Amino acid sequence: MNYLEFEKPLAEIEGKAEELRAMAKTSPGMDVSKEAEALDRKAETALRDLYKGLTAWQKCQVARHPDRPHCKDYIEGLFSEYTSLAGDRAFADDHAVMGGVARFQDQPVLVIGHEKGNDTKTRIERNFGMARPEGYRKAIRLMDLADRFRLPVISLVDTPGAYPGKGAEERGQAEAIARSTEKCLAIGVPLISVVIGEGGSGGAVAFATANRVAMLEHSVYSVISPEGCASILWKDAEKMREAAEALRLTAQDLQKLGVIDRIIKEPMGGAQRAPKEAIDAVGKAIEAMLKELSGKKPEALIKDRRQKFLDMGTKGLAA
């Protein structure tokens, strides 16, 4: 288990329980079951206390936890007959973006998502989930395909933001993001987006301009990272805690503001502690959102999607 900074008290309790059980294995006559169970109960209480009042910055840490299930895990856990489609037909295949056709509960769909990787090798290969222009152009190609064959699109968002490197800028990063966002608004099929970890800047919006946007309970979605915001406003990246609060980037804040439609509850201690439970919860939310949109005509889906984003920021102003 990888423990976050604020989870250190919990790490000590769980560590002591594991030590007791390890001692019992090396000394068969030793009975430590009662002591270990008492520590387990204490750890459970500590975990509940920690997670019932997370700050915005702590939620950022949970959203970035390396053990959280990523796009690949959700595709393997929720979709069958997944066939990966690669390349933008112009420059290259961006491994930070994965997508293809699949079946969701026997319904043909198209799924697209950011993939961060789960170890050093795959994180480098996937560029830590930061897409380049060819990644967004691949997404555009796949959304065109979905529109042509009337396939609902499901996007899984988990990125710190689009890759800001020199090569990406030379190949038109901003234009690619804008085109991907424009394509989201134009397709005449249901488009559902779930923020499963980080939703960073335009790199997230390019996949999440959807009819329905959901977020996992401890995920974050923002125009800029707290560190980036602190560097700009206060010239001090260490003020990221204040920035996280000011950005209103938690699922709870964004639902109140009307930016997202649904919060998906996570297992106690975050998705990283019970990945299968978290994946199943996302599956149920996707099923419900697909039902809400089923039967709607292409024109109605496009109109509703556009109006959803035009209305953002006006909530409560009429009163």
CATH architectural arrangement of the largest domain: Alpha-Beta Complex
User: Based on helices, strands and strand pairing, what is the structural class?
Assistant: alpha/beta
Taking the sheet with the most strands, its summary is: 8 strands, mixed
Q: Strand portion, in percent?
A: 15-25%
Give the terminus-to-terminus CA distance.
49 Å
Q: Find the count of extended strands (DSSP E, 2+ residues).
A: 8
Descriptive notes:
With 319 residues, the chain is of the alpha/beta class. The longest helix has 19 residues, at 8-26. The chain folds into 2 domains: 5-53; 60-310, 2-enoyl-CoA Hydratase, Chain A, domain 1. The relative contact order is 0.12. It is globular, with a radius of gyration of 21 Å. Helix content is 50%, strand content 15%.
Task: Tell me the layout of helices and strands.
Elements: H1 8-26, H2 33-51, H3 56-63, H4 71-78, E1 80-84, E2 97-104, E3 107-114, H5 120-125, H6 133-148, E4 153-159, H7 166-170, H8 173-186, E5 191-200, H9 201-208, E6 212-216, E7 220-222, H10 226-233, H11 240-247, H12 251-257, E8 262-264, H13 275-293, H14 298-310
Parallel strand pairs: 3-4, 4-5, 5-6, 5-7, 6-8
Antiparallel strand pairs: 1-2, 2-3
Summarize the structure.
The chain contains 14 helices and eight strands. The protein is α/β, with parallel strands linked by helices.
